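User: Please predict the structure of the protein below. I'd like the answer in structure-token form so I can feed it into my own downstream comparison script.

Assistant: Understood. Taking the following sequence of 268 residues as input:
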Amino acid sequence: MKKITFLAALFAGFAMSAQTVFFSDDFNEEDVSDWTLYDEDGDGNNWADVFAVTDASGNPVTPISLISRSWQTAPLTPDNWIVSPAIDLTTASGNVQLSWKVQAAAAEWDNENYSVYVGTSSDIADLEDATVTFTEVYDDPSDMGTQFERELDLSSLSGETIYIAFRHHDVTDMDYLSIDDVMVSGVLAVGTNEFKGFKHFVSNNQLILSSNTSMEKIALYNMLGQQVVSQKLNSNNESLNISGLQSGVYIATVSIEGAVKSFKIVKN
């Protein structure tokens, strides 16, 4: 399930910094229409031609995931790119991490080469020149085709809008490469001066907000990470009608002068 920008997850005490998932895709919907595909080798094969690999008996050997092939009844020599939609890190601060899972075939067919590029442009020429990159030749010492977890530090790109590219290349006549559970997570930027005097409480189906500085925007997210309310603000004292929300716990994010503060509210 895809959740882009402010997936409410892993909030540490809902305090001055909040761990947030800015982007995730597990490919379970078998839909990459918001990603951009490039078949640079021109063979007509690319990422997402299939979303799972099965054995000779039809049993899955991969989870539903992003698949690119270096063999498909005959050897292939892929140069396949897939570029993410824009990922907004303009409210991120400090440590930001990209994580994903990778898997290839068992035994001697596992040496798939791939690269990950992260930059501020979706153009693949720009991404190839990006300074934040990762390249490996998959190799499972157990020869079992294990799914491994990988991470890449994106902290240098905090405050930017970024794109992630996965490239399957410089390999031939192996089998498949599987990428799954792509996630960008980090800490929301929260200004201390901007939020001096900030207060909030819920009363009579109204979320009441006050601060020393004019507020700009508020958004509410349910615990599945789905945005349920978004409203512009323009004063020091504001109220938000939440009577239409179901009872439960929500995460609110308030913006003041470009800084963001997150906190929990309970709708009875």
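That's the full token string. Residues 1-17 have pLDDT under 50 and may be disordered.
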